[in-house]
Amino acid sequence: MGGCQHICEETDHGPKCSCHMKFVLHSDGKTCVGERSVQSQAAPQLFPNETCAVNNGGCDSTCHDSVTGVRCSCPVGFTLQPDRKTCKDIDECRLNNGGCDHVCRNTVGSFECSCKKGYKLLTNERTCQDIDECSFDRACDHFCVNSAGSFQCLCHKGYVLYGLAHCGDIDECSINRGGCKYGCINSQGSYECTCPPGYKLHWNRKDCVEVLKCFAGLVAPKATLTCSKTGKKESCSLTCASKAHYLAESDNSYSVSCGIPIFRGKTPSRFNSSSHSCI
């Protein structure tokens, strides 16, 4: 205040400047210089000593004038060294990892937190939170399973995972013909076995069975044999257009014919009206 370098006092005649210990007031009535200042017959030569006005008092950062001389201070992130002049950067990462969840990197006067892959830094700039990659569109072609810091893609049956996220069709026919007895046709996510003319696909969807045909002149009155399979149980039913004839040949075998009896030297044991079922 009042243009004084050190101390300003209010008097009846206006502001009056004075200096701290070991300083004297310059002839300009405002500036303070050290007592070691040497005056010559010419203009007085100043020898600055312990004042912030000269070379910032030798301080690296902030300088304050006090009754005992200059007092240096440092900004946040720096610490004053034993020489009471120099400021040195504080490595915040050395203490408790700077409070960072994952990675702490020291910078001049400060520090920075960062996260491992698969995590994001929250607004407090310290905490790391897992990224749910499965919440992103098209993260995986088929299925996505999230995990801490990562995720995994899975594919439908009949597909194989390519890279990290893409599912490609498995060509089952390229491996041992898909297990088919005759032919194999691949399709997206599946395949199908085929059979040659005169054969049809077995219920196991892999083998081929012969298609039975009746030739004209070799067949007696028309008969129909119908078979079906439920689980491991296969049932067949024989239906005749005319009377069905049943012949028991032994305890473990019998014959069924339509229209004309089959005697084979024996007498038919039982006649049914039109059909007979066997399992």
Provide a descriptive summary of the structure in words:
With 279 residues, the protein is mostly beta strands. 0% of the residues lie in helices and 41% in strands. It is built from no helices and 26 strands. The strands form twelve sheets. Strands 21-22-26 form a three-stranded antiparallel β-sheet, with no helix packed on it. The chain is rod-shaped and about 155 Å long. The model is unreliable at 37-48 and 263-279 (pLDDT under 50).
Which characteristics define this entry?
279 residues, mainly beta, three-stranded antiparallel sheet, 26 strands, 0% helix, 41% strand
Beta percentage is 35-45%
* Number of separate helices: 0
Structural class by SSE content:
mainly beta
Biggest sheet, spatial arrangement of strands: 21-22-26
Show unreliable segments: 37-48, 263-279
Mean pLDDT level: 82
GO biological process, one term: signal transduction
Protein name: EGF-like domain-containing protein
Domain EGF-like: 89-129, 130-168, 169-209
Subcellular location: Secreted
